[in-house]
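Can you give me the bound-state structure? Components:
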Amino acid sequence: MERYPATRTNLLEILHEIQRAEPRHYLSEASLRAVAEYLGMPLAEVMDAASFYSMYSLTPRGRHVVRVCVSPPCRLFGGEALLKALKERLGVEVGQTTADAAFTLETSSCLGACGNAPALMIDGELFEDVTDAKAAEIIDRVRREDATR
Amino acid sequence: MPRGKTDPKDSARIVLANCGAIDPESLDAAVAAGAYEGLRKVIAERIPPQAVVDEVTRSGLRGRGGAGFPTGKKWSLTAPGAVKYLVCNADEGEPGTFKDRLILEGDPHELVEGMILAGYAIGAKEGFVYIRGEYTLSIERMTRAIDQARAAGFLGERILGSDITFDVVVKRGAGAYVCGDETALIESIEGKRGFPRLKPPYPGQVGLWGCPTVVNNAETLANVPAIVRRGAAWFRSFGTPASPGTKVFLILGDVERPGAIEAEMGTPLRTIVEEHGGGVRGGRRFKGALIGGAAGAFVSEKQIDVAMDFDTLKTQAGAVLGSGSVLVLDEDASVPKLLDEVLRFFEHESCGQCTPCRAGAPQLVRILRRALTSERRGEDLDRLVALARVMRDTSLCPLGESPILPVESAMRHFRDEFLTCAVPVGRL
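Here's the bound-state model for the whole set.
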């Protein structure tokens, strides 16, 4: 947080960084209070922004966040089936986290990959033309990497 | 690189000229391809700011974010002030759109130079490029390009030894379509939730931190270096008299080769679909297209020869160019299903500030779904259009004003399908 000058224009950037560094990728009340103090802002106004943007989470998430694109083009060209397959594979609904805290399943309104639909993003990495098999492969790869860590 | 980024059939390339052709992480590669030549020209020939504004005005460049407002005029309408800001809108959230991403990832120095020239023209010393938070690679590459440019003396104080001072800061969005609205984007840069402001005053008068601010789309700014370097007359050799230049089109859906192409303004829809997109997938029939994203409009097969520019689409097809996205539908595509997805998008992205949009967007979804299962579909479909009209007339920002475009055009061209389609709606 101290990497950024203590002015309000850096609020979104600071929230992004805290959330990234936090193992459960969320904004805890304690960290929001710390941000409010650092920027000299009322906690309510920090909350106001933190609760508005869809990339921030106020509740703990998994170690990895899977975001499936649900923009109209993606939905029409395989995104609907992809989301269903991922729900089954991970055993969770959208917004939920797997029991081992490895994955949280989320949706995104558009990942800007419409020419290569359907698309999903894991921890900021974009995957395009995602078939069910490819999604399974990506999830397995992330699990293997976690196991060796 | 995803497919479709370099299409050999591109008829004209200005904005994407270097995308895919140079290493986007190398300043040397960008400079070898002509980056910062417009800036060098301005410095070497001591071209005054007003002359840059005049050249862009003469070029006829219009905003590529969708509205098509003349860029030179926007720059001219900026109020005088000791402190002004330039903002590059790269919050590309329109579904079906990824043109700004191609520029940010493929030729970030073109955008940096465009921002320097625009900042110089309007008298701003500081610029912000607001990139949507989901664009990880774009943010990385733009940040790197800005650092490289600063180290090489293209950004900062006394650029290349001249009197020009300008610097750029990257701002990351955090997932809010509404921030594509210029006033919501300004709020977001200020560190607030992205609630659009009432207009007027426009950002040119009261913008970022209350100062005169110009907000331009990334594709718009990416055109500026070439205009400064090669002149308005050269730029006008592309496109149509009212919409000069080129446009990046995103070809999606039921086509053989989805992807992005850059073509002259006024290129017929048929050329875009058949030549650039390789035709409708599997040789099927062209049923229509959704042009311009969710905040766009449907055209039917009868309109496949329409010229794709700001004015012709409006006057001849009742549609909009918008972001340049072209979602092609084949004979089996379900327009009701697509409209349902579009309306759900608006429901999700309505920011909640003004009542017509907050209450109206979810109602649109409900009314359409009810219409498709009701005994009196026609009445419900009329209700859908009526509500979208009320939203257009009473909402605070373009988000709430937009659903009328897909709703009304869908009813105009495909009402029969809505009246007869089976439920649940078919493939797509």
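A couple of observations. Chain B has three domains: 27-236, 246-330, 335-420. The first strand of chain B starts at residue 85 and ends at 90.
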